Amino acid sequence: MTIRLVDTHVHLNFDSYDIDRDEVAEAWRAAGVAHLVHSCVEPAEFPKIQAIARRYPEISIAVGLHPLDMDKWTEGTAEAIAHLAASDAKVVAIGEMGLDFFKANNKAAQEEAFIAQLKIAQSLDLPVIIHCRDAADKMAEVLTTFFEANGPVKGVMHCWTGNPEETQRFLDLGFFVSFSGIVTFKNATQVKASAQMVPSNRLLVETDCPFLSPAPKRKEKRNQPAFVRHVAEHVAALRGISLSELAKQTTCNAQKLFQLPDSILGND
């Protein structure tokens, strides 16, 4: 059976890929990566991300503002994100967006930008790609309040590192949960436990490249989409299933969440 994986979070616009992006694409195709979702940390990146998606048809894209880029949030940013999202049929999500309270002194501003982007996603019927670091309690609170007032928004907790209790909160809110190379790290005990408990119909895998190379490739400072196969293999082992079964589940989930082409599911 052919393995088809979706890397649900990449940053291929980073300069470290400028010298060999075609070779990186060859590698992900050889590894069975059938589709990729390219995230965005601030709207100024969008033209380069669009160009990459045009060059590699298996890439879908997102647009949003990362909580660590709050210095770029201005009065017109929300409108710009909404316009960009509506302007390109390749856009399948708003993000990445969220809360990052690690060493943060702008929590209120982050929350304001996060809520604004939730509203954009809801208005366009798009899922959100959520970054959540040291902010699980506030994230669950903000989402619950927003959902009660406005109705739910679908999405994914990306590069998830929470414990099982935190994981369950976001599952209860209807979110998918995506695991990166962190799940392969020897001491990532709570992440491994979370990867074992997520229902099969809510599970996703990613690289978050160029960051967080998985355990077999830790010596390679630059992560790449082909390495999502190592993430998938590790999660499959944790769950006691085959790689082919894990790939089928996660690819189906990605197709459903991001409304990706049916062709990525294959006919094998």
Could you characterize what this model shows?
The mean pLDDT is 96. This protein has an 8-stranded parallel sheet. The chain starts with a strand and ends in a 10-residue tail after the last helix. It is 41% helix and 16% strand. Strand 3 (59-63), helix 3 (77-87) and strand 4 form a beta-alpha-beta unit. The chain has 9 helices and 8 strands. By secondary structure, the chain is α/β, with parallel strands linked by helices.
Concise account of the structure shown:
41% of the residues lie in helices and 16% in strands. It has 268 residues and is an alpha/beta fold.
Total helical elements: 9
Return Rg in Å: 17 Å
Q: Which stretches are low in confidence, meaning pLDDT under 50 for 5 or more residues running? A: none
Assign an overall shape.
globular
Report, as a whole number of angstroms, the end-to-end distance. Answer: 6 Å
- Secondary-structure element string: EHEHEHEHEHEHEHEHH
Largest sheet: 8 strands, parallel
Work out the strand percent. 15-25%
Helix content: 40-55%
Structural class, by secondary structure, is: alpha/beta
* Quantity of strands, as a count: 8
Q: How confident overall, as mean pLDDT? A: 96
What is the spatial order of strands in the main beta sheet? 1-2-3-4-5-6-7-8
Features:
single chain, 268 residues, alpha/beta, 8-stranded parallel beta sheet, 9 helices
What is the strand and helix layout of this fold?
Elements lengths: L4 E6 L10 H10 L2 E6 L7 H10 L3 E5 L13 H11 L3 E10 L6 H18 L3 E6 L2 H15 L4 E3 L6 H9 L3 E4 L9 H9 L5 E3 L22 H12 L3 H16 L10
Parallel strand pairs: 1-2, 2-3, 3-4, 4-5, 5-6, 6-7, 7-8
Helix pairs in contact: 3-4, 8-9
